[in-house]
Amino acid sequence: MNPKKNISNRCKYIRLSYTLNSNSPLHPDLKEPRITPKNQILTGGNYNTSIITVENHSGTHVDAPAHFLKDGKIISDYSADELVFYNSIIWDCPKNRDELINKQDISHFLSKNKVLIKNIDCLLLRTGFGTYHDENAKIYSTQNPGISPGAVFYLRCQLPNLACLGIDTISMSRYGRMKESIEVHQNAFMNVASLGKPLVLVEDLDLRVVGEGTELIKVLVVPWQVDAIDSAPCTVLAQIN
Length: 241
Hints:
Number of helices: 7
Strand content: 15-25%
Radius of gyration: 18 Å
Oligomer: single chain
Number of domains: 1
Helix content: 10-25%
Order of helices and strands: HEEEEEEEHHEHHEHEHEEE
Distance between the termini: 20 Å
CATH topology: Glucose Oxidase, domain 1
CATH superfamily: Putative cyclase
Largest sheet: 9 strands, mixed
């Protein structure tokens, strides 16, 4: 028996990222994506092509440190290996509109998962706010829960192998709170030896597709391959049993 073939038969991949289109919920500071047909078979062309105009923080996207740090790493500087995570976990932390995941929440989570925390390299925060993604784009874009700056710093102190933090909301930070947003991102990205490697942040994840108790064998973050930009839209895949 081929062991690799046997494993592939028992495992499958699911997508944790949204399909980007002209109606995708966006952070209010962004322009809506435009997908403009250029050559079309239906109008007499020999082939189909389109022009895509989109800001790089649209839809499911991955923030690299250059998003908020002058000397931070840009997304194209990451190798494929750096964006594959083998010890991922989804944490159910239900939050209402404009609520914060705080240090106390994190402490409670870590105390219940002492066996797991040492090796976690990717933590995905499931607030439940993804229900608004399709139901009410305005609420989803302007009243999202977030994580506090202190909670991000505390996570990095407690999880030495953490490299990726994701969330099922439009942003890690709540809308309309610029100071909070700067601190959240800077705490995630700052390069301090005692905190381990700077994080990448994946925002606007679709975690509704993962059943409770599902084991994540592997999570892959695949950004658009565009040079010289801080961050990029991405496809996120999870391998599950």
